[in-house]
Amino acid sequence: MTDPVGCEPERKTDGIGGLNVPPVRGLERKLDPTGRMAVPSDLAKRFSFWKESKESKEPRNLMVTLSLKGDCLYIFEPDGFKEWIDLVFLKSFGGFDPTSEEQIDLHSVLSERGDCVVLDKADRIGLAAWQLEEVGIKPGSAVKLFFSGNKIEVWDPAAWEEKRRRVDVKTLLKA
After folding, report:
1. What is the pTM of this model?
2. How far is 75 from 79, CA to CA, in rounded Å?
3. In the chain, what's the furthest Cα-to-Cα distance?
4. What digits encode the pLDDT tens for the residues 117-135?
5. Residue 37: pLDDT above 80?
6. Which CATH number characterizes residue 69's domain?
7. Which candidate in 19, 28, 47, 148 could, as Cys together with 23 as Cys, close a disulfide (CB 3.0–4.6 Å)?
């Protein structure tokens, strides 16, 4: 895991998962042979640093991690990644208990799965080979991108279609 300067969270938010923005319909992009991906501007501009000048000397850092099910990658701002982990523990255990060995282990594993990457001046990021392999994406292949909540989701198109067929949105009517 790389650790460029600035990947530590700096600000607090409302603690409910970050930005409240509508999802973007899936966009298709292709990874280059090294696993680098151009982040479309209509997705990148939803991150808080987008308003800052691209000429800034400060790195524009993002955190890439596996989804909990390991079926796609999530791309967060560093604060969003920390908030996501906090939210996972809040929903699963009512919050993080630093005296629970099980929770300490889970927290360590979730944190370790995150990789800090820098969005370059051309709005590209490099995705780690091990993360791509975990979700069944090959460098040089097409991916499907969505912005949902405070993150970008990166999917193998076939895995996304399988999920889309499997999910019954009518269950929301029963809620």
Report:
1. 0.81
2. 11
3. 50
4. 998 888 889 999 999 999 9
5. yes
6. 3.40.1550.20
7. 148
